[in-house]
């Protein structure tokens, strides 16, 4: 049965889209067919990591939400873009980066129930093994839907007081929505921090397992969202940490 995985953070700036792209690609590298949907409609950006240029995005999630095209028409095979081979496949449904489209979404909104239907159709049309949802930060009705239908919810936080408080709120909401499995990922951690103690503190605070702790990496920053890090640097410490998280997703 296909597995739906939502990647979420309470605040922006946690590295959520970068995390989503790398985790989804790591899962795809195990011979899986993986879909990624950018539901961060007000501020899309994950297409950059998959080397999909806006001028090549003839259809987007926006077109589906406005009833202009089936969602599968907005799905792009970006496997070659990121260097995947063989049975490993990754498909991206981007959101529009056009100013007029973003303004229309912000002004008029959209029928949230369409997302659930679209996810179902996408999984069936592309015969996906996994569907990753890159959510919009914070809590909204769109986020609630993504969380509610997820088999796995991965919450990203930084070792920061605001992130700690916001994550606590998100976890309370997720528990009310009866999410089946929750994992935490601590991102952008200074290398001088004791990772074992940090893991212990976070797990004791939330009573949820920490799937991975990711250092603040200059190598990752230097890539500047031009490609998927774990493919370009498979032996890097960060890439190895993504494999640990991927194993827990696929378990």
Automatic annotation (TrEMBL):
Point out the coiled-coil segments of this chain: none
| GO MF term (any one) | ATP binding
Question: Keyword Transmembrane: yes or no?
Answer: no
Q: Cite the InterPro entries for this sequence.
A: DNA_Partitioning_ATPase, P-loop_NTPase, YlxH/NBP35
Report the superkingdom from the record: Bacteria
Q: Name one Pfam family in it.
A: ParA
Q: What is this protein called?
A: MinD/ParA family protein
> Which organism is the protein's source?
Limnofasciculus baicalensis BBK-W-15
């Amino acid at each position: 049965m296909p597995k739906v995985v939502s990647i979420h953070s309470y605040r922006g700036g946690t590295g959520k889209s970068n995390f989503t792209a790398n985790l989804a690609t790591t899962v795809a590298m195990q011979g899986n067919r993986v879909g990624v949907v950018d539901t961060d409609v007000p501020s899309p950006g994950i297409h950059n990591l998959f080397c999909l240029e806006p001028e090549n995005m003839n259809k987007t999630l926006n077109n589906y939400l406005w009833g202009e095209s089936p969602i599968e028409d907005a799905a792009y095979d970006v496997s070659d873009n990121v260097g995947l081979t063989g049975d490993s496949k990754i498909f991206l449904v981007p959101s529009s980066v056009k100013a007029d489209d973003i303004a229309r979404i912000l002004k008029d909104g959209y029928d949230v129930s369409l997302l659930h239907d679209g996810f179902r159709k996408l999984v069936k049309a592309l015969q996906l093994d996994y569907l990753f949802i890159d959510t919009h930060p914070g809590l909204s009705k769109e986020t609630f839907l993504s969380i509610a239908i997820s088999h796995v919810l991965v919450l990203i936080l930084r070792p920061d007081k605001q992130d700690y408080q916001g994550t606590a709120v998100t976890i309370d909401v997720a528990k009310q929505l009866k999410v089946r499995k929750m994992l935490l990922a601590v991102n952008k951690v200074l290398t001088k921090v004791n990772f074992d103690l940090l893991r212990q503190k976070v797990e004791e605070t939330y009573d949820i397992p920490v799937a991975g702790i990711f250092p603040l990496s200059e190598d990752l920053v230097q890539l500047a969202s031009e490609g998927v890090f774990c493919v370009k640097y498979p032996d890097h410490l960060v890439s190895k940490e993504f494999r640990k998280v991927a194993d827990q997703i696929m378990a």
